[in-house]
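Lecture 7, part 2: worked example. A protein chain together with fe (ii) ion.
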Amino acid sequence: MNRIPIQRDVTRLKVVHRQRVLRHGESDPAPDFELASLDPSLWAPARTGWQRLVETEYESVVISGWMTAGLARLGAPLDIIGAFGRIVEDEIRHVDICAQMVERFGEVPTIPRAAVPPFPVGVADQNAEEVEFELLAGLVGFFCVFEHLSAHVFREALGCSQHALAKWAVGEIHRDEAFHGAFGFETAKIFVPKWSDRTRRRLGERVVADIQRFEQRLGGPLSEADATAPPGPLEEALAGLGLLSPPHLLAVFYEAVKSELLPRLDDLGVPVDLSVKIER
Ligand SMILES: [Fe+2]
Ligand SMILES: [Fe+2]
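Predicted complex, written out as structure tokens:
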């Protein structure tokens, strides 16, 4: 596939970027790491795992930038626009951290050329209500579902990280991700409760599709046998490097959907019927 290397620190603005990556001096420095200290059989899968995270974090940059602009167009309160601007900064930082990890494992971090964001919002020829619905459906899908559930996945990955470098990278990402889903819910609370029952039902159908999309992104749905198979030595070693296997990711995901996501969507007045849609 046609790919573009992640470019950073190429202009004088690198000073501003580095300040952001280092959280204005408050981030922990990356620990020393010798690739040779790690079993060579782990190099390629670790590289692939962190490269995949470069791509999903980059996607978050695009979507949160787009969402910031969309919320500004809707005339959202400045505190909300500012919070989403903050998410853009966080996601740029996450791409940089994941890119550092790919480099540590001996590869050039890249993104696909002209990647299309998965949540199109703000189509020009729609009426104002439809623009608001599309934007908020994208917001709920990306922030209340994807970002909120990813925070749970990162927390689990942090708990499993054994290697100092993985603990550092996953920890630096998780500390921000923990807030992004909450920013989504706080924003949705302003708009969604004012909608008609019919529009909220329509949103609920979108959310079901988003939950399924997230399940697929994590490698699901799995057969019962694959979901319950004990992890092999490679899976365990990769978990120590912050990279969890699909059965592990999906177990965290199903639990978080049930105990965290659905009650919050219920509070928001969004009916979500997962009875036939989700595998487990
Ligand atoms: Fe992120
Ligand atoms: Fe995020």
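The first helix runs from residue 14 to 21. Residues 38-268 form a domain with the Ferritin fold (CATH 1.20.1260). Keep this in mind for problem set question 3.
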